[in-house]
Amino acid sequence: IIRSHINAPIEIISGALNATMTISSTSTSMMTAARLILLSTLLIAPAQSILQTATIDILLPGVPTPITLLASQASFGSSLISYSDGHSSSSSSSSNSRPAGVGLIPSTPPSDDPYLCNESYGFTTYSSSSGNADGKSYNNAAILVPRGQCSFERKALSAQRLGASAIIIYGSLSSRYSLNVTNSTNEDNGSSNNDAYTRDDYTIDDVKWPIDKQDYDCDNGQAFIPSDVFTNKLNFITSPGGYDDNNDDYLIGNSENNMCVKYAADETFVSACESQRCLVTGKNVTDGGSDGTIKYEACCAWDFAIRLYQDTTLTVDEIKEVTIPAVYITMQQAMEFLDLMNGVSSNNDDDGGDNNNSGDPIVLSMYARDRPSVNSSAIIIWALGVFVAWLASYLSSSDYRSYAKAIRMKSHLVARAGGVGAVAATTAAGGQGGENVERPPPSPARHDGTPRSRSQSRERSTTATAASPPSESGERTIYRDDDEDAAEAVITNRNVQPQHYQEEESLELDASHAIFFIVLASTSLLVLFFFKIFNVVKIFYAFGCSGAFAQVVLYPLLTRVFRELRWKSPMRPMECLSEENATRAALNGGCKGKILMCLYSFFGPITLLDVMANTIAYAVGGTWLYIAFTVLHPGSNVFYWIVQDVFGACMCITFLGTIKINAIRVAAILLTVAFFYDIFFVFVTPLLTKHGESIMVNVATSGGPPKADPSWCEKYPSSTECKGGEPLPMLFAIPRVGDYQGGASMLGLGDIVLPGLLLSFASRFDEAKRLMGLVSGGSTCTVVWCPAALVLVRLFSWHAGMGT
Q1: Euclidean distance between CA atoms 90 and 622, whole angstroms
Q2: At CB < 8 A and 24+ separation, what contacts does 356-359 make?
Q3: How is 193-227 classified by DSSP, letter by letter?
Q4: DSSP class of residue 151?
């Protein structure tokens, strides 16, 4: 059994929060109710590689409910205050003591520096009182700046020197183009044409075009723009960045004003291109017609959130100087935000003033998205692990309780039929191994310390505890322990319809088994690490756990339903597969007889209950396996992780009901070796492997986290390099509740099974003592409930060879 101690986020983001701007027109109470409903159902959307960890609340004049955008925070500058803390502090703080990013007025850069890169070019030096050509005041303002032409941190530094309190950088088509300036010089020799950032003699050959797959994907939409249209309307050689902002009028939108819509290769561009923006790739093709017209290729542009990294060319003092918060929004979000700003500005102009001096401006506040302070799913999974360990150990001792119940039931019936004297006689007979009561199961301790063989350790199922007197043929009928009519039949010799009966095999571990157990686990772990056959584990888990699910859940459930409905036929052996029919068919010869005899020999008597339980169980397991192989992130599927947890619980119960330890020293050896096994494969193997990988972590996460860049996996999540990180189904997993970053709390099945072996031993020991007290007519106290018996039990353990 491979154990997992991983509690790493898998970055699952709520489906109610997406990369585009969401406009909320509902009241706060309705939004709260919707969130509670969302969390209660645990609906989880596919994972995103780059999470937007900030929110921007935009409050329009006269509108009480803000519009919320999601944004990604920069790795530089100051951190944003959390949403809950920001709202509690802003209500009691003055404008001079507001947290960073709260209560700001959105603004645009100076008209002569739309990208805030002039300072990085050396054209100007910004400060709060100089360098601003427009003379605008940026006090308590958040500047919206397009991406491109210089680094993110350079833009933030310039915005701060202008006096801004925050900067919002948004995606742009222009950021995907640049000019080759390697042949230019910054020396001023009297001609501006020699300045890399001002020269006006660039040609189309100097353009650095967008990169395929990284910036655009022609599979999402492709167009071919005629060369005359390209020449007359598009410009990619404007200094300093190359891209002319007027190009946006012809490359954005879903109407025919967008050249990619007008000249699309097929009619699916509008529906296929989600961003509704296209990039000219710099590739051209020649029309096959007689005129040989040249056309320029344009393809659908990507528009995703990105991470704002630091600029390594900045000096240490410049890095320390950047203290304002910086966030990034997509092109679509920016377009809608700028439309809102223009709309409010137009309304204020219609009222006879401008946005700076009259009318109510737009107010925005930036917050870090809230995360729960307590990981409730960790508490839930801890409780689940404890419950499964308790339930498995409790059920492992059910045979002892069944025998005790049969003794009590028969004593009650005998007393009712023959008086009190018969009770003592019956009890004594039970203690001496009378004919009408099954013998109690053997004590959990072996006095000679030797392990039992499989044939020696077969125990009766909980469905068989009472037996009828022998028939003429010497056979006895087995009845359910909770069937009072059956127990009464034992007393009155009355014939009652026999119930379904089966035997269960068990294996008692000794010290050699404990060592072999760890060796086998280590071998399995190494095989999975080197050969990467993780899908085989999923197949074994699906089919193995389906059988356990049928035995632990469906058999008892369907039996209870049929008994409540008083429908007994599903619990009787099917006639077509009875021993009599199989024997008769085999004697008649032919394939049918051989098949029936093989089925009967392998399965034994088959009931309709068997067929129904196994059909349901394997249908659930097959569905789970289908999701595991077809869904990109199956752990985000509610059905998948619920079934995985149920299957895991059933497997733990089945394991602890079959594999047992009957000596404390075996438990001590097993748990001690498992302790060092965990330490070695989690903490020592990184020192031994080639790439410093932990073998346990690598196997538990199906080969480790994705190796590709997060931005690549955002675009191509099904790529081979983006796969990995999904935990193998050998653990309990519960998604984190109320955490936008997603992830799951996990608990390995080995963390339940290994301690469960010791709990199972203690449970069976207690029940054995209780049964011995009942048979002998004495006390039924246990080591758990009778502290005074501890000394006696320890002496018994010593002399029985169990150890202390």
Answers
A1: 54
A2: 356/136, 359/61
A3: GGSTTT-----GGGEEPPPBTTTEEEEEEEEEEEH
A4: -
Q: How far is CA 222 from the centre of its chain?
A: 36
Beta strands 503-504; 105-107: pairing state: unpaired
Mean pLDDT in order along the chain per 10 residues (804 residues): 29 29 34 32 40 89 87 90 71 58 87 87 73 74 91 92 91 89 53 61 87 92 90 86 88 89 86 91 72 84 89 87 92 90 74 52 89 90 95 91 86 71 46 41 40 36 41 42 46 43 68 88 92 92 95 93 89 75 72 73 81 95 94 89 95 92 88 92 92 90 82 83 83 88 88 92 91 72 45 42 40
Residue in the structure block whose two tokens are 């561009």: 269
Position of tokens 């005359």? 228
Classify the phi-psi angles of 489: left when phi > 0, otherwise alpha if psi is within -120 to 50, otherwise beta: alpha
> Looking at beta carbons, which pairs linking 182-191 to residues 24 or more positions away fall under 8 Å?
186/122
Tell me which residue of 764, 761, 731, 560 sits closest to 652, measured CA to CA.
Answer: 731
Let me know: does 753 contact 4? Beta carbons within 8 Å.
no
Q: Is 504 helix (H, G, I), strand (E, B) or coil?
A: strand
> Contact, 134 vs 227, CB < 8 A?
no
Which residues, other chains included, contact 381 with Cβ-Cβ below 8 Å and sequence gap of 6+? 732, 733, 734, 745, 746, 747
Tell me the C-alpha distance between 652 and 647, whole Å. 9
Backbone angles phi, psi at 71, to 5 degrees: -140, 160
Q: Give residues with Cβ within 8 angstroms of 220, minimum separation 6.
A: 272, 273, 274, 299, 300
Using an 8 Å Cβ cutoff, are 745 and 6 in contact? Answer: no
> What does pTM read for this prediction?
0.73
List residues bridging with 747 in a β-sheet: 732
Terminal C-alpha separation, the chain? 27
- Give the sign of the dihedral formed by CA 575, CA 577, CA 583, CA 585: positive
Q: In whole angstroms, what is the distance from residue 606 CA to residue 516 CA?
A: 35
Strands (E), 515-609: none
CA pair distance 304, 220, nearest whole angstrom: 14
Three-state DSSP class for residue 560: helix
d(C-alpha 410, C-alpha 488), whole Å: 7
